[in-house]
Structures are given as structure tokens and as C-alpha cells.
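SAMPLE LOG
Freezer: B-3
Tube label: C17
Construct: single chain, 310 aa
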Amino acid sequence: MSTIKVISLNTSSEKGTIKQPIPKATINFKGMDGDAHSGHWHRQISMLAIESYRKMEAKKEGTKLDLGVFAENITTEGIELHKTNIFDRFVHKDVVLEVTQIGKKCHQGCDIMKQIGDCVMPVEGIFCQVIKEGELKPGDTFEYQPRVIKTLVITLSDRAFKGIYEDKSGPFAEKMMTGFFENTGRHFTIDNKILPDDEAMIQEALKKAKDDKYDIIITTGGTGLAKRDITPDVVKPMLDKEIPGIMEHIRVKYGSEKPNALISRSIAGVMGSTLVYVLPGSPKAVNEYLNEIIPTIEHSLRMIHGVDFH
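STRUCTURE (predicted):
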């Protein structure tokens, strides 16, 4: 855990203008009281690190920038804020903020660009929604709590469960997900288990994963036409929402070259706040499917948690 210090609290009555420091701030469930950006949306509080100010001052030798000049509500010191991730939290004894956006589109004609000639907010500013409201003053500290994305990989195979052959698809899925999280700078955990093609055991594992608040469940195996291929039949009734497009796309993409790919009964969906992907049981298929699924995961998680800003 890291600690960040509040250097300045800043407000403005109009959007796109420089904010002025204030001695203390009331943070409510719309944002900073009295600020133009306050509202029922995902960008309630804007934050910028003093470390980013120093970069800008270094670019403009001899220039000393006033705090609030980049229209941030909270100026901090301690970490480079733009290296955080969506869903990470800043926890103060009275106020809790959750990161919802990194950077933003720069609006032409704003006062900041007119007066300063450059702006760091589009690249290094971050935005948060208020999770807990309260009072803040300069000198207060936040504890930075990275959001850990929890993934469970379940291999479904009678023979692998009995140790007749080594499970290869589960470890391959774990490897691909590890690469994805590391590339995005995410904090993560990946757990795995091997189960037989047993309806009750599959149901129990999924219910427990939901209760344990896993963000992602990936199953491999049991998507074909054999008598014991029951995974989609067990999982589908447990979903609150199905995501048919991703699996339809994958079947068409690979089925156009290899018709056997069209036989897969893989499904995807949402169970509570958990993304569920039911994949075939070969490493080759896991590779093909996850190559298409992985680019959609971040956006899917944001939608599930109400941070959807197309």
C-alpha cells in the first residue's frame, strides 16, 4: 500500500476554467461541493499529482505553476496517479474515491490552453467517483488501494480429474490471462481447479466463485456433443445475462476455415458481477478464443460496475 498526501483542494464555477485553491472541501456523492464538474456521472472528482506539475515546470524552465491551474479538484503528492487503474481506490478516514477514468479528451478553446499553452490533464490526470462522502483539507492523506482482479480457471474433464492425463488447457488459459494483466499493469490473482464433468460439482464451484467475488471465471472443456459434454448446459441457467456476440464471432471466424469449429457450444455471460467464459478444452482452442475475448474484458468489467463511458 502507498500513501498520497493532499497538497491542494481546488474548485471552479465553470467547466474548462482554472480552479482556485480552497481551505477545505466537502465531498458528497456528486463530487466536490460547489464545483462545476460535480454531478451524477463517473467523473465527479478530478485528480492530478504534483509530480505531473514538476514535469510541466521542467518543460517550461523558470515557470512556477499555481496549483489548480490544470483544473484538477485534488492535487496530490506520493505516486504518479496516471499509473493507477480503473477501480483502484483512495481511502481516507472520511472519504473514499474510486478511479473511473485515466486521462481525457482535451477540449479546444479552454482557458487552460489559452493561459498556459499546454495541459497535462489529458494524459496524466485521473477521474474518480465518490464511494464515501466527507470532509477533506490540505495535508490529509489517502491510502492507495489497488483493485485486485480475481480470476478462476476451471478445467472440466473426467480424465484430467482422475489424473489419466495432464491438464494443458487450464495452465494455458492462466498463462494468457497473466500476460494480459501484466501488460495492463493490473494487480491480479489467478486460481485454478480441475473438476470432473459433474453437474452438481460445476454448479457448486460457480456459486462459490460468485460468492467469493471473482471478477472472471474461465472454464475449459465440455463444450462438444459427447454425452458427458455438459458445461454449457449447466452454466447457461446460472447466468443473469448472456453475451452471445463474442462466441458467435469466434465460431464464424474459425468455422469459415475449419467447419468443426462451428460445432462448439461455448457461451459467455455475466453471473452477478462475474464475467463467465465457457471455452473448449484444447490449448489451441483456448488460444483462439482468448485472443478474441481478452480485448473486450476491460470494457466489460467497466460496464458491469457502472463505469461505462462510450
